[in-house]
Target: Glutamate-1-semialdehyde 2,1-aminomutase
Amino acid sequence: MIDLTKSKAAFEEAKKYMPGGVNSPVRSYPHMGCPPPFIQEAHGSHITDIDGNTYIDYVGSWGPMVLGHAHPAVIKAIQKAAERSTSYGAPTVMETEIAELIHQVYPSIEKMRMVNSGTEATMSALRAARGYTGRDKILKFEGCYHGHGDSLLVKAGSGAATFGSPDSAGVTKGTAKDTLVVPYNDIPAFTKMMDEKGDEIAAVIVEPVAGNMCCVPPVEGFLEALRKETEKHGTVLIFDEVMCGFRTTFHGAQARYHIHPDMTCLGKIIGGGLPAAAYGGRREIMNCIAPDGSVYQAGTLSGNPLAVTAGIETLKQMMAIPDFDKILEKKTKDLLTGWKQAADKAGVPLVCHQSGSMFGIFFSEKDVLNYHDACSANAAQFKAWFLSMLNQHIYLAPSPFETLFMSYAHSDEDIEKTIQAADKAMEEAAKVK
Ligand SMILES: *Cc1c(COP(=O)(O)O)cnc(C)c1O
Model:
């Protein structure tokens, strides 16, 4: 067992002052049977805790650290920017620079606004869609996470495509009733809902590659159906690419699947590890945002110079490496091939999913296409696997519903070590029923 003595003490202290001892719930390692490692520092593909354990990191701050931790060029750019002050609350030319850059990579984003988190991006995109269409209802898919905005913390009970019920305490029934929920990848259920309610629906929001029920890519025809039905009913189609943007391909899921959404939300990578996100899309929709239009949305720290600097530098570094996304896709494929072989050797049924540099595994006999399938995977085997990997210094997300991320900093040697660790971890998982 690795020594987590200092982390354990730090966790006890933190719990006195913060709910669960953390500032975001999954960090508390619920159900994993060990305290979360408290982090000291991270460099490249490695992360080190306060007990001095160093791990190979496949969490990457939940997605942003696509270049690896503490990338020298990004750090230098942030340091230089910080010397010119950390915030002005006034326009800078670099905000236009990042908006142009994003428009180049995502041509469907004609105009955009920066915010501080993915949550704000999706909340604001929905408000814009409601303002633009004059409609109240929205439609989301079960198991898709779009941040913690009230109207998005709703999922259907037992997969029924009916009025949502609140998924979180504190979300009012009034809010929940305007959120319709349909199972992900279920084209007939979606089409039926649009037939019935399409003309009342302001927006359909989707993770075009789902990454919050572990990694679940869209089935053939799913995104096409979303585009077709939303067009038919004058509903705004919002791609939440906060996670899959720059990862499934550099140009996002919209490029991989050749679908032009009306609006897109970006986050994670575009802040280079600092708090930044954006929403944008068709000009006529974005013209509804204040001060041009009547949809109010603002932010004291929006377009923060440090966050924008880190974002621009991260994107530029990615763009400077030819086939950046393909290189990461290949590393990811190599890793998963090794994990699958380890599972086969141990006799553990395993489903591996990947989309570019996002990936995940399910301890399941059958393929996983939606939230219901994801919930049916073996949680006890996941826990045994997770703990064994942690003990072998491999840092994975402490939940079977989280996606893992490859970075450019992961070396062939890292991947080889991780596969070796998987051999043992799959044997541990095999002991669990
Ligand atoms: C992470 C995530 C969000 C929320 O972003 P925060 O910055 O955590 O608020 C929204 N949508 C998707 C798809 C995400 O993965």
User: Anything to note?
Assistant: Residues 324-346 form the longest helix (23 residues). The two ends are 22 Å apart (CA to CA). The chain has two domains: 5-70+323-430, 72-320.
